[in-house]
Structure formats: structure tokens, C-alpha cells
Design goal:
Helix content is 68%, strand content 4%. It has 207 residues and is mainly α.
Length: 207
């Protein structure tokens, strides 16, 4: 009776703990996607405020004026705030899933968590500043001549992804393309080149 063939060794760095971590990240991503869809559906169901389509202009009947921002937002602002926060968490989870090496983030774990937390804080500050501005535009503070929500968008929220770009650059050689990976890639290229060269010599010999 022949012996049962042994199972193939697991891929490099792929242990039971790594597989469990990947599964947990996958489940977390799925939950975030479902929560995002729920937030969108809730925002669509609640609808915008009564002034979302504008209000009749005081002097030109054929024209509609925007009216106060707070009147247009209604409960949609809360649903949008939740949806935006979920997208930041989704991005952080995708980053973690792609940068894991051997089942772990290593030195990138803490700065990634800090970056996601700060990104969420900036997003929350932007939403709160906008809500305050929508309620009382003239009383809202300004920074560099801009309304506070606009300033937060331009100078905080918009450039913040550079934090994650810096993390990617910092961990590229350790988590994306290591020296061992590059050596195997070069060896594979050389093997393919040698095979092609041998095939060319065999073809010339047959001729």
C-alpha cells in the first residue's frame, strides 16, 4: 500500500496565523462595504431637506435660489458623514491587506493606525465645520480668507493621503518587493532568456 503523498508546503510566509489575519481583514472589508451600502441607502431613503431643489427667487420668478445650506442638507449630511468615515476605514483595511508580509505589517502597523485615526479626525472636523457654517455662514470662522470647511478640505483632507504614500515608500523594500523577490525575479528572467536562446539554437540546428 503506497504511502499517502504529503501535502504541498504552504507558500512563503503563509502560516495559519497569516491566513487567519487575512480572513479577518477580508471579513472586515466586507462588513465595511455592507455598512457603506446601508449608509447610501439610508441617505437616499431619508432624502434631502425641503430646500434641496432651491427656493423661488425673490425678484425673478423663473429663477430658483439655493437658499440656506442647512435647509438643503437635512439628514443626508449625517449619512454622508458616516459614509465618508467608512471609506477611510475601507482604504486603511485595503492598505493593510496589500502591505502585509508574512501575515504581519511589522513597523507599518502603528503609523498606519495613526494615519487612519488622524484621517478620520480631519474628516470629522470638516463635517462639523461645514455643519456650523451651514447653520450660520457669517458667524463661521475663516482661515486664510477661506471659510473653515473649505480651508480644511484644501489644506488638511486633500493632502492627507500623502501620509499613506510615505508609508508605502517606507515599506516598499520590506513589504512589496524585497531583495529576495528581486533576486528570484532576475533569476526567472535569466532562465526564460536562456530557454529562448536554447530554442533559437535548436531551430537553427534543425534547419
Amino acid at each position: 500500500m503506497s504511502a499517502r503523498p504529503s501535502a504541498a508546503p504552504p507558500p512563503r510566509g503563509h502560516t495559519a496565523a497569516a491566513a487567519a489575519g487575512d480572513t479577518a481583514l477580508g471579513v472586515a472589508l466586507l462588513l465595511v462595504v455592507l455598512a457603506s451600502a446601508l449608509a447610501l441607502a439610508l441617505g437616499a431613503w431619508l432624502g434631502a431637506g425641503p430646500g434641496a431643489a432651491g427656493v423661488p427667487h425673490a425678484r425673478i420668478p423663473a429663477m430658483f435660489a439655493g437658499g440656506a445650506s442647512g435647509d438643503r442638507d437635512g439628514a443626508v449630511l449625517a449619512a454622508g458623514a458616516v459614509f465618508g468615515a467608512l471609506q477611510i476605514v475601507f482604504f486603511g483595511l485595503c492598505f493593510a491587506l496589500g502591505m502585509r508580509r508574512g501575515g504581519a505589517l511589522g513597523r507599518l502597523a502603528r503609523p498606519l493606525a495613526i494615519g487612519v485615526a488622524l484621517y478620520l479626525a480631519v474628516w470629522g472636523a470638516l463635517v462639523a465645520a461645514y455643519a456650523q457654517y451651514a447653520a450660520a455662514p457669517m458667524a463661521s470662522p475663516r482661515w486664510l480668507g477661506l471659510p473653515l470647511p473649505t480651508a480644511l478640505l484644501l489644506f488638511a483632507l486633500w493632502p492627507f493621503p500623502l501620509w499613506f504614500a510615505a508609508l508605502y515608500l517606507r515599506g516598499f523594500e520590506r513589504h512589496v518587493l524585497t531583495d529576495d523577490d528581486f533576486a528570484r525575479f532576475r533569476a526567472r528572467l535569466e532562465a526564460l532568456a536562456a530557454r529562448d536562446a536554447q530554442g533559437g539554437r535548436d531551430g537553427e540546428a534543425r534547419e
